[in-house]
Amino acid sequence: MAETAEIDQLVARAKAGGGIEPLVALLTAGSEKTKENAARALKSLAYGNADNKVRIAKAGAIEPLVALVHTGSDEAKDYAKVALSNLAFQNEAIEKDIVTSRQPRQENAACALKYLAYGDADNKVRIAKAAKAGAIEPLVALLTAGSEKDKENAACALKYLAYGDADNKVRIAKAGAIEPLVALVHTGSDEAKGYAKVALSNLAFQNEAIEKDIEAAKARSSKAKPAEQALTVPSVPSAPSASSVALPSGKGARVAMFSARFDGGQVEKTFREVHRILRENRYDVMMVEADSGENFGDMTTAYLGRLQREKGIMLSVCTEHYGEKTASAYSSFKELKFALDYEADITVVPLRVEDIYPPRPGGGPKHQHDPAYLAQSYVVSVFKPSLVFEDCRGKPAAEIAAVIAKRLRKETVSTASPSGSGCQAAR
């Protein structure tokens, strides 16, 4: 068994120009722990290093990494997924090798695309090129013919590919994805249902033709399964139900982004549901995906950049410690600083979710990351007494979504001050 120390030695040799083959061999020949360590090492070697990517691919790592995503331990699966994503990033040849790896091709493509597509617009454009050669059609086929896990992966991949990409939406619809996605909302696993709902919402967003096709598919599905009519498919707009909430259309409202401390708790779960409701009703609201892994930073950076370019709204979920400075380079602290740096462009709308307001992030000489109380200074600078907050305490997701929707429609770009006061919302 190759222990961590041995893996570290192999990594050091690889960084020094030595062979990567020994690490690749451990993906198949080692123990479960060894496979985890080898995948972790390859993930790190592939990150941001074009030469290493080529060396890893030439050493034959793609096939065992794809296999590990299917068969490895939870740790190994996670490392393999990120390794594949790192390998494919800005390398079309490797991306193609991953998507077209050995049989079962469809299953591999679904799993690989799921982790290559999310959070990176350039990656989605490159993967769309592969779609012309038949990458999307196998995903659609898996929605009906694959295993439960295959259906989940395929729906998730299509969800990401459809997000914000008009050409991909058309390709996915033409490939016949709408009917099986609608069906999956009724019959799939909980994971598959969630992915299918968001995939349909993304497909319909700002595409009236696809929206109509989804409505028609819903109607056909309801006639075929009258007992399941309560399971509505998210479309834009849709009637109120257990899974869908009707709001005034968000078409023309300002772009927005949720800024929050992501800890997997109830507040995060509530606001992910709020995000889903807003997206269903055509509100262009961004929120970093819960499963974005190492792409979290790229997604956050891209969303902040768009917020600044389009003079958008930062929806600050104000828990007690919102804005605290942490070890992460991409945190609510950084987002708050960004809003302050670009206060002429970004409007901050505080969402009060706790009795303590404004937030009181930790700081001081004993604080590991913020001995100078920077976070508290940013909070004071942004959350001024004149800044109007929305009181979300104790409210369900649907009610919060309605409140936010009203603000996004009201807060048109023309109402923002031309300079110096972008962090203040209109009363």
Automatic annotation (TrEMBL):
Pfam families: Arm
Top-level taxon: Eukaryota
SMART domains the UniProt entry points to: ARM (SM00185)
Record InterPro entries: ARM-like, ARM-type_fold, Armadillo
ARM repeat residue intervals: 18-60, 134-176
Protein name: PUB4 protein
